[in-house]
């Protein structure tokens, strides 16, 4: 059942993960703490995220927890911000918080033979569009040493849940006032993206 705050298409969820790649990885079982890790989306032919690819330090207790029980919840926080009443001309309008989030229920597969790919692909994603992008070769011999202390993994998506609460419930006049007056250009861009024509 679709709701007002659902993404319009898989492209919206993909854009969130690509634009805000740092996820909280939370083991479904055990005592391991949650850990933040940057992850890369892998999609099917329709653009739906089918897996998330990354790496973790071997010394992180999350590795042992996920080896014992390979299920994890991944939480991505996209654009977000407080919407103060001073932006709106309606006296009775109350403050709110706009945000876009995605969570994935996943099954973890460790893929140590892809350690090099995990590091290279992440660097390429994060350096994309920069002048003189950084590559792992700049680390010299230290790169090989680093690779011995990590393990790559693929989080296979079992279920996806996304909420894009970005002002879709506001009247056109109120929405326009918020976008015109808010100080976060990034949040406003996402608000415009998710606004259906009215």
TrEMBL record:
<dbReference type="Pfam" id="PF04299">
    <property type="entry name" value="FMN_bind_2"/>
</dbReference>
<dbReference type="InterPro" id="IPR007396">
    <property type="entry name" value="TR_PAI2-type"/>
</dbReference>
<protein>
    <recommendedName>
        <fullName>FMN-binding negative transcriptional regulator</fullName>
    </recommendedName>
</protein>
<dbReference type="InterPro" id="IPR012349">
    <property type="entry name" value="Split_barrel_FMN-bd"/>
</dbReference>
């Amino acid at each position: 059942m679709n709701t007002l705050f659902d993404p319009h298409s898989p492209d919206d969820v993909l854009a969130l993960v690509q634009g805000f790649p740092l996820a909280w990885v939370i083991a479904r079982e055990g005592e391991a703490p949650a850990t933040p890790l940057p992850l890369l989306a892998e999609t099917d032919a329709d653009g739906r995220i089918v897996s998330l690819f990354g790496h973790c330090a071997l010394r992180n207790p999350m590795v042992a927890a996920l080896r014992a029980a390979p299920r994890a919840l991944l939480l991505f926080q996209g654009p977000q911000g407080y919407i103060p009443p001073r932006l709106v001309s309606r006296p009775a309008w109350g403050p709110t918080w706009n945000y876009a989030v995605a969570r994935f229920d996943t099954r973890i597969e460790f893929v140590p033979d892809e350690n090099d790919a995990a590091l290279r692909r992440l660097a390429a994603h994060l350096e994309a569009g920069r002048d003189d992008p950084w590559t792992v070769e700049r680390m010299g011999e230290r790169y090989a040493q680093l690779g011995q202390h990590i393990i790559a993994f693929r989080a296979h998506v079992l279920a996806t849940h996304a909420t894009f609460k970005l002002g879709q419930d506001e009247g056109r006049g109120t929405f326009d006032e918020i976008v015109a007056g808010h100080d976060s250009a990034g949040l406003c861009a996402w608000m415009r993206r998710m606004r259906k024509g009215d």
